[in-house]
Design brief:
The protein is of the alpha+beta class. The chain folds into 2 domains: 89 residues, no CATH class; 59 residues, SH3 type barrels. The chain is 31% helix and 18% strand. The chain has 5 helices and 5 strands. The protein has a 5-stranded antiparallel β-sheet, with no helix packed on it.
Length: 171
Amino acid sequence: MENTAKIYCHTTQKKWPELIPKIESWLNTTISGSTGFTPVELIFNDIRPDIFSKILNKTKEQQPNNDELQGKITLAYLTLKKKAAKRKRRKQFGSTRWEPELNEEALLKCQPTSDAALGLTAKFMRPYDGPWVITKIIPSSCYEISDKDGKIRGTFHKTVLKKYLREPGGE
């Protein structure tokens, strides 16, 4: 819930109490990738919300069937076990071996601070700032970064930098 709140409350921080019920509803009615069910299906045995049911006027045969709760829990358990076994087979050890290069874009880990006068709450701010451009490589894993206009931000260790990934189709 914290990550979702950061996404939606980042720009409208004074309205976060109004968004909490909506965020809670979204999370409770979203199908989990790990179980294949929504939380309200597994906890309350409710029918999965279908946003198209009102628009398409689905017949009873087209509506999702409401299986028994125990059957849903069993299916969710089997799905979780299958995904856990798949993760175990991947054998991915350690972190990625990202070595920043000149002119590569990176994000900088920052320490967000609240500002009561502006109505900003640190817990809704993003933990990384950027993107910044790597302008100089300093031996021992330090890098000088600057903004797009070439204004230097400073020198930082690799541990506080994160590779910037653009969305497909982005710049």
